[in-house]
Amino acid sequence: MHYVTVVKALKGKYSAFDHGRYTLEYVQDKWTYPLIGKIYAFQDYEHALRWSSDYHGVTIWEAEAEVSKNGNCMMCSEEKKYLWVFWKWYSVFLAGKTTGQPPHLPTAFTPNGTVLCNKLRITKKYKEL
């Protein structure tokens, strides 16, 4: 399997946002797998820092990841409430069986420099903001 270096923004050792039971906890040098969907990270430090500057208490980490997709993609903007519904729709969208946005589901696009990962392990802390 091919792994790449990415940058992950966390709140302590958890996902930057609370997604309820889908919130991931990261342990340095151990693989983290998403409970649903993909893990969001950034392709480089500059993109992570630009995004993180709007949020207090974020820690930026270097990480190793198995990457699924680079670049801007659609995401659910109210993930805690609609996460499962969104990812079921998104898998159908990726398979080319539907187009457009999911009906009655608030969506947004990921920040510039986003990388979607199948699994990720944080390795080195860069900075706390």
- Mean pLDDT, nearest integer? 77
Count the domains: 2
Q: How many β-strand stretches?
A: 7
Taking the alpha carbons of the first and last residues, their distance comes to: 33 Å
Order of helices and strands: EEEHEEHEE
| Biggest sheet: strand arrangement | 2-1-4-7-3
Residue fraction in strands: 35-45%
Give the number of helices.
2
Written account of the structure:
With 129 residues, the protein is an alpha+beta fold. The chain has two domains: 1-73 and 112-129, no CATH class; 74-109, no CATH class. Helix content is 19%, strand content 37%. The chain is built from two helices and seven strands; from the N terminus they run E-E-E-H-E-E-H-E-E. It has helices spanning 45-52, 79-94, and strands at residues 4-11, 14-15, 39-42, 58-70, 74-76, 107-109, 114-128. The strands form two sheets. The protein has a five-stranded antiparallel sheet, covered by helices on one side. Strands 5-6 form a two-stranded antiparallel ribbon. The termini are far apart.
Attribute tags:
single chain; 129 residues; alpha+beta; five-stranded antiparallel beta sheet; two-stranded antiparallel ribbon; 2 helices; 19% helix; 37% strand; globular
Brief write-up:
Helix content is 19%, strand content 37%.
Q: What's the arrangement of secondary structure elements?
A:
Layout: E1 4-11, E2 14-15, E3 39-42, H1 45-52, E4 58-70, E5 74-76, H2 79-94, E6 107-109, E7 114-128
